[in-house]
Amino acid sequence: MPDNAAGIPVKIIAVGDELLEGRTADTNSQRIQRAIGGHGVQVALIQVVPDRPSDIVRALDRTEDGDLVFVSGGLGSTPDDLTREVVADWAQAPLAEDPAVRAQLEQRWKKRGLKTSSGADRQSQVPRGMKPVTNPVGSAPALVGRLRGRMLVLLPGVPQELEGLLKPVVLMLHDMGALPQPSPTLLWRTAQAAELNLVKTCADIRARYSNLDWSWWLTDWGVDIRLASRSTTAGPGDLAAAEKELDLVLGRLVYSRRMESLPQVVQRLMLDRRRTLSVAESCTAGLIGGRLTDQPGSSGFFRGGILAYADEIKKEQLGIPAAMLREKGAVSRETAEAMATGCRGKIGTDYAVAVSGISGPDGGTQAKPVGTTWVAVATPVAVFSRQYRFPADRQRNRLLTVAAAIDSVRRVLEGGDDKSPWAADDSWCLPS
Ligand code: ATP
Ligand code: MG
């Protein structure tokens, strides 16, 4: 792999009227960025253009000799899918039927008991100089090749198809010398830390290892941190040294060092320990149970839950005393703990997690503003709880609650049944 591929500019062209009308968000560019991240290339330009040949041509004209250009969308068989033809025309690379692609498409339709669609005529056309890459999800192959000095990659617009093709495409680009070896990359997946707090926590280390490439991004569960040593000034030992220091300061905030989700981690821990879990959800009304059962195999630990949105259900199903609800309120330490304990007893699980909060926009008071949320975890030997003050709108507050509840269970599993899963400096938490 020649070194000179490092630093080559990547340009992305996302084609689709829907992307410009606010109907669809351009997530494909993001997927492309992730797939090539760490390969020592840099995305220099993303252009979003309508399904119009003149606009696609103008976008292609904005790329330069030596660029690696990804084009997403317009490889289908409907009349508005024009990418293949426009690129062939722009590069003066005549289209010709590729018999192998044709055979694959026919086989695909036959398997599904259908007659070959007329779309196969167009989808088996390949511009001279490009190679097809089989689509593992849909019909249209990706097309890869060097035309007019650019390494061009044409990908279908359907996100699942694009995602399925990116892996073989990246391998092919690597084999063709258009993408360098991925540089060593480390990942920390964190939960229950506000991004700003995390940046502060890492500030010293970041300053000392500024020759490494640092990136941060928000996820459904919290914030991911990625560290790579693509820069030529980083010594081979720098990454390992920074890793040790980061492990120390991040501590309990890290739920995984690889690309797995928080519920996947909790499921793994639960199954390893042969423990069971139930949920008592007020403000999230089932969202926590939903996410805990995203993965196949979740029945091995998740038993069920009580969706106690109304106070009557908290009383009837979880045994919360009316006096407690009247005097302390539904959003209180007492109620959250009683919900967790009641749920654990009623469903008969090793652990139960309960949440009760005010997601907004209404319902807040001076003492309990919008975002006030109690999370409680009952274990075989204790019950722990903590008050959060989430800072966002209804939707985000609910997502933060889901992540906090699931992560608190993770922390109990890692830290021990008799230890509180929270520390004094946890983000969004009030002092206990
Ligand atoms: P098809 O065979 O479905 O026509 P195609 O390759 O022609 O596939 P498009 O028609 O451009 O792709 O897009 C198909 C669907 O994929 C669109 O309806 C849109 O919802 C989605 N899509 C297209 N481009 C993007 C993008 N950049 N980000 C996210 N979704 C996209
Ligand atoms: Mg289409």
List the topology elements.
Elements: E1 9-15, H1 17-20, H2 27-36, E2 42-49, H3 53-61, E3 68-72, H4 83-91, E4 95-97, H5 99-111, H6 119-123, E5 125-127, E6 131-133, E7 142-147, E8 150-155, H7 159-175, E9 185-191, H8 195-208, E10 213-218, E11 222-228, H9 236-250, E12 254-256, H10 262-273, E13 277-281, H11 287-292, E14 302-307, H12 311-318, H13 322-327, H14 333-347, E15 351-357, E16 372-378, E17 383-389, H15 394-415
Parallel strand pairs: 1-2, 1-3, 3-8, 13-14, 13-15
Antiparallel strand pairs: 4-5, 6-7, 7-8, 9-11, 9-12, 10-11, 15-16, 16-17
Helix pairs in contact: 2-7, 3-4, 8-9, 10-15
Task: Determine the mean pLDDT.
Answer: 93
Q: Helicity, in percent?
A: 25-40%
- Give the domain tally: 3
Regarding quaternary structure, what we see is: single chain
Span between N and C termini? 56 Å
Shape: elongated
Q: At the third CATH level, what is the topology name of the largest domain?
A: Molybdenum Cofactor Biosythetic Enzyme, Chain A
* Distinct bound molecules: adenosine-5'-triphosphate, magnesium ion
Low-confidence runs: 1-5
